[in-house]
Structures are given as C-alpha cells and as structure tokens.
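Following up on my earlier message about tryptophanyl-5'AMP. Here are the inputs again, as you asked, copied directly from the submission form:
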Amino acid sequence: MSSPVSPDQKGGQTPKTFMPRIFSGIQPSGGLTLGNYLGALKRFVEKQDEGIETIYCMVDMHAITTWQEPAKLRQQTREGAAAFIAAGIDPKRSILFNQSQVGAHAELGWIFNCVARMGWMGRMTQWKDKTAGKNAEAASLGLFAYPSLMAADILLYHATMVPVGEDQKQHLELTRDIAIKFNNDYGVDFFPVVEPLIEGAATRVMSLRDGTKKMSKSDPSDQSRINLTDDADTIAAKIRKAKTDPAPLPDTAEGLKDRPEARNLVNIYAALAGHTVDQVIRDFAGAQFGTFKPALADLAVAKLSPITSEMNRLMADPAEIDRILGDGADRADAIARPILEQVYDITGMIRSRRK
Ligand code: TYM
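Thanks, got it. Here's what our run produced:
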C-alpha cells in the first residue's frame, strides 16, 4: 500500500514515480458547513468511489492553533467523522482518522519547521487574515507554523493529490515548496510534488449574507451559512433570507459576473444537483429569486437532510465513532511510520532503539 523509497533512490538520481494517493483534512474547530460539504466532503466521496486510495483526517492538532474547549473539540471531532461517513465515506475503503492519534504528523511537522522559512509563513494570506486587526504577537506559534504541519499531513503519506476548496490553494503551493526544498537540501528525490485538486462549481461557497465573503464556520452570523446539523426548516429559511439583487437570473453564465450573491446561489445549486452552471442557467433563465430560491431550498433539503439524519444516528454511538477513528489511525500509522523513519535517516538522526 505504501510507496517506500529504496535506499538507492536517496541519491536523487532515479526519478521516482509515486502511486496515486489522496490525502485531505478538515479542522474540527466548529460544526461543518455547506462550504465544507461542497468544497471538500462531497468530492472526497467521489474520489473514494473512483477507486483511488484515499486517506482523510480530522486535523485536531491544527484546530488547537486557536483556543478550543476540550469537551467541544472532542464532540466536534466525532461530529466531523460522522459527517464523513454520513456523506458516503466508507471507513473500510478509505482511511478515516484523527490527526493526533498518529504522532508521525507532529514529528514530520517539526522537521518541516526547520525546512520552511519564516518569510514563507509570514506571506500566507490565512495567517494575515486571522491576525488582521489583532495583535499578531499574541497569536500562537502553532498558528504561524500551521502550514508546515499541513505539509507534513500530506507528505507523510507521499500523497500525490489533495482535494480542497479554493482557500487552501496557497497552503498547497507551500507544501510543494517544502517538498522541493527538502529534496534539494538533502539531495534526494523523496517527497512528491503534490497536485491540488480544486474542481467543480463550488470550490468557494460564499456567505449567504455577503457574496464577497467565504462561507465559514467561524462567521459570527449563523444566517451566513448552512450547517450540516441544520434541520430542513432552518435550511429553507436561511435560503429564503439569503441576500440577492432585484434582477431576474440571466440567460448566460457571463451575466452572473458582477452579481456575487446570485452567482453563489447558482453555484450552490449546480454543485448540489451535479449539473454545470450553464445547465442551471438554461433551466432558470429569466426566473425571479421568488422562483429560484424555493427550488434551491428543496434541492438543499433533499441532499442534506439524509446526511444530517445519518449524522445524528451515528452520533448516538460515540464509542463506535472512536473505534472507527482508532482503526483508521492504526492503518494510517502503518503507512506513515516507514516514511517518517526514512526521513529521520535522510536527515541524519540516529535510530538505534530496539523496537
Ligand atoms: P478547513 O477545515 O477550513 O476546511 C476543510 C475543507 O473545506 C473547504 N472549504 C470550503 N470549500 C468551498 N467553500 C467554502 N466556503 C469552504 N470552506 C471550507 C476547505 O478548502 C477544505 O478543503 N487547512 C485545512 C485543513 C487541513 C488540510 C490538511 C487540508 C489540514 N491539513 C491537509 C488538506 C490537506 C483547513 O483549515 O480546512
């Protein structure tokens, strides 16, 4: 299953091909939103169903880069895992686990802290956004180093593809930079240069209250997002109240260009229905929001309600969720450990403990 490098490849002479393998993660720092579902979860399931090896992680170590109440963190980690399964992740076909159970993530994260440069981290827009208008001196060191742990998550498995939403693009570019610098510094061809998979109609789902802002679990307004735990009435009410402009829907996708709220709702419809934006525009050209919003609400409820009820069913048995996460962690560790051991060897660490 893993893609070990033979010692003779360490000189960097042999160009290495890596097996296709997907890794992605979600932070359990709050409840999951429609943005997480369309930008990530739904696509994670599609990748699993294409038969590619898939490894998915609740990144609890990333979550604590900002303060998390311990009891809530535990609950949100289980809820996230339940959302994966409810959305269609089969924990037998995919590996599903929480990051802190596989210590190799933190170990490789440290090594990457020594590869990555302060300047690289300081240029991350997420770091800048999260500290904007606040005292950056008071942010945790972990928040600054966040992207280096994220690179470790991915490269620890020699993952080659990473499905994410648009907002993670810069972090993936940094992952590539870290892989390239490590390979160059040590004269090896050890880490793959990963491909971000940012595909589909909803790689950036926007707030329902402001079409220029990303839909986010950390937005203070609950009206700005659809949560995967919202019931049917709440979903319908939030869509009904979503901000729009007074014009009817255009008859070409071009016509959505300067209409961020309208474009967002059309993108959401397309992604939920599995249609292209052009198809949705064809079906609703000239329609008023009074017609389009109820259609969108019906579609959202039809797609999301089964997931919500399955999540609720799974959450009734937290021990079973913990068992699934533990089993996934064992399988993840079995891939990660040998790769990490090679990293220690490459970097010159003595590994003489008897196992
Ligand atoms: P996080 O937890 O913020 O989001 C998880 C995934 O959901 C996507 N997403 C969205 N997609 C479309 N529209 C939105 N409004 C929206 N909001 C969130 C994100 O792009 C992401 O794919 N740093 C990552 C977690 C992480 C990770 C990794 C991801 C840690 N290690 C390794 C991939 C590989 C994050 O904070 O995602």
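One observation from looking it over: The longest strand covers residues 21-26. Hope that helps, and feel free to reply on this thread.
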